[in-house]
Specification:
Elements (H helix, E strand, L loop, with lengths): L7 E7 L9 H11 E9 L1 H17 L6 H4 L1 H7 L4 H5 L7 H10 L6 H15 L1 H19 L5 H36 L4 E3 L2 H15 L9 H6 L3 E8 L4 E5 L8 E2 L1 H4 L5 H9 L2 E2 L5 E2 L7 H8 L4 E3 L2 E3 L9 E4 L21 E8 L7 H4 L4 E2 L17 H21 L8 E6 L12 H21 L2 H22 L10 H12 L23
Parallel strand pairs: 1-2, 1-12, 2-4, 3-9, 12-14
Antiparallel strand pairs: 4-5, 4-11, 6-8, 7-8, 10-11, 13-14
Helix pairs in contact: 1-2, 1-17, 2-10, 2-14, 6-7, 7-9, 8-9, 10-14
């Protein structure tokens, strides 16, 4: 144990949320002060936080500074700088107007009509020549109408109608051209407005700088494991319609074509990946397992649909079979059970993020604190949001499809007391790339407060209470599911009863007795 390094250990899982991930800097600084991070996981923006946390712990275990505040100073400062995240999202020229107009519509702190006008202005200015053509045509038509010698009343009516049509065309034609260009861009391989090269390059440089490694030798999962750090991320295989855990396990394999990844990853990363991958037929290479560079896994988990291009891989060494990998949040946005064991020896913390204040609800709920850590013996406030229109309906449908499983699990006994909730106000998180300095600092401070609350609760005595709760929950679950009078598996119930009884009053499994069957010595994992 290095002097000054924390003695307590923990696992950490972080939720996806795009720009809300800026709060993870504060979380890591606070938790890194009290705990050594052993298992770290996340999805999407949570995968960015997980990779940065793993690199920081790697640096600490390699003889670097013991304080995460020193190691993470640069990335936390950068992400909390207004405009920095906007620079990481660089759309292709054809998709720039659509992205800028969409971001303008998301600025919830402005009145709806102002957001709409801002979006229209962006679209019209991007195709100014089409709007100018409409004005010129209207001017020519006005000349002929004025010289037609019609009665004044008819002439005025025709001119008003003419310029109304010109105004509509001046907006509709640029809008149609922008929509057509965006559609063509999204139809191209990757299906995204951005290739993601800017954010991937920043991630590579940041991970390497934190880990104190050269750019030509990307940090890998194997090197993390060699220092006692298990990093895991979730991505989504659209071809198989399922989540995929990274790094790949032995039963899974995927192949890649270096030419297809050239525009998605920095040259140093792709060169290393190509050099360390197994050759296959048809020019394909087998994607490594533990030797996979961490930045590659982050990019696979961070492929936000339609925003960042999906990553092409092949489920077999066959170029005709291709699977597109998109954001891990599509299938598991908050994988809180990623490292859970039936009998844990350390806590697995979760950082959840939810909208705040809610659209609707009682005043006391609106006045709730921004950072909330439920009590172990108290109820978890149910996740609830009002539906006030079609937009809200669509948002809630997407929320339910994406988060129902993770949200339900986070409310269970043994889960809710270790999941800290950060409540996001309007204009915070999500695709709000233009958050001001005050908002960004508040998010970092919220993250720091969440980490401090978890550290204060899970002292050695707090961990002992948590483990007892997990044991009690396990015994109850086994009692409900395995009736001793109805055992279709022969001696399974008796074996489990002896196993739980023997281990039920201590945080670590007891030594196996000479008469215990071999199965009792295995600690199952969820």
């Amino acid at each position: 144990m290095r002097p000054g390094a924390p003695k307590r250990e923990c696992d950490l899982v972080m939720k996806g949320g795009i720009t809300s991930g800026v709060a993870y800097g504060g979380v890591l600084i606070a938790l890194g002060r009290a705990f050594r991070l052993r298992n770290i996981g996340g999805t999407s923006a949570g995968a960015i936080g997980a990779a940065i946390a793993a690199a920081a712990e790697y640096r600490r275990q390699s003889g670097g500074p013991t304080s995460f505040a020193d190691i993470l100073q640069r990335p936390v400062y950068e992400l909390a700088t207004p405009g920095f995240m906007t620079g990481l999202v660089q759309p292709e020229p054809a998709g720039r107007p659509a992205l800028r107009a969409g971001l303008a519509l998301l600025r919830q702190r402005r009145a709806p009509w102002r957001r709409g006008l801002a979006a229209l202005r962006i679209v019209v200015v991007s195709r100014w020549w089409a709007a100018l053509a409409s004005v010129l045509l209207a001017g020519v038509a006005t000349y002929f109408v004025a010289g037609a010698g019609a009665p004044v009343a008819i002439m005025v009516a025709l001119l008003v109608l003419l310029w109304l049509v010109a105004l509509v065309l001046g907006v509709a034609v640029p809008g149609a051209l922008v929509a057509l260009a965006t559609r063509r861009l999204l139809d191209e391989p990757g299906f995204g407005l951005c290739s993601g090269d800017a954010i991937t390059a920043w991630l590579h440089e940041t991970i390497q700088a934190i880990a104190d490694r050269p750019l030509t030798k990307p940090l890998t999962f194997a090197e993390l494991k060699a220092h006692g750090i298990d990093l895991a991320m979730i991505t989504t295989d659209l071809g198989a319609a399922r989540p995929v855990r990274l790094p790949l396990r032995s039963e899974h394999e995927y192949w890649f074509d270096p030419a297809e990844l050239k525009s998605l990853f920095p040259a140093d990363v792709l060169a290393y990946l190509t050099a360390t991958s197994e050759d296959g037929p048809h020019g394909l290479l087998r994607l490594p397992q533990d030797e996979l560079p961490v930045v590659v896994a982050v990019r696979l988990s961070l492929s936000v649909p339609l925003l960042f291009a999906a990553v092409p891989l092949h489920p077999a060494p066959d170029p005709s079979r291709r699977s597109w990998f998109t954001d891990g949040g599509v299938t598991s946005n908050f994988p809180i059970a990623l490292f859970d064991a039936w009998l844990p020896s350390r806590p697995t913390f979760g950082i959840d993020m939810r909208p705040f204040p809610l659209r609707g609800g009682t005043p006391d709920r609106r006045a709730a604190p921004r950072v909330f850590l439920p009590e172990a013996d108290g109820p978890m406030p149910p996740r609830w949001d009002d539906v006030t229109g079609v937009t809200g309906l669509v948002q809630q449908i997407v929320d339910a499809v994406q988060n129902w499983h993770d949200s339900s699990q986070a409310e269970l006994d043994g889960f809710r007391d270790r999941v800290c909730v950060l409540r996001l106000a309007e204009g915070e998180g999500g695709l709000h790339l233009d958050m001001d300095a005050t908002t960004l600092r508040r998010l970092v401070q919220d993250g720091r407060e969440a980490g401090e609350m978890l550290g204060a609760r899970f002292t050695p005595a707090g961990l002992e209470r948590h483990i007892k709760l997990r044991y009690d929950t396990l015994r109850q679950a086994l009692g409900d599911e395995l009736d001793p009078f109805e055992d279709p598996f022969g001696g399974l119930t008796e074996m489990l009863r002896r196993w739980v009884t023997r281990n039920g009053d201590r945080p670590d499994p007891a030594a196996a007795g000479p008469d215990d069957p071999a199965e009792l010595r295995i600690v199952p994992r969820i």
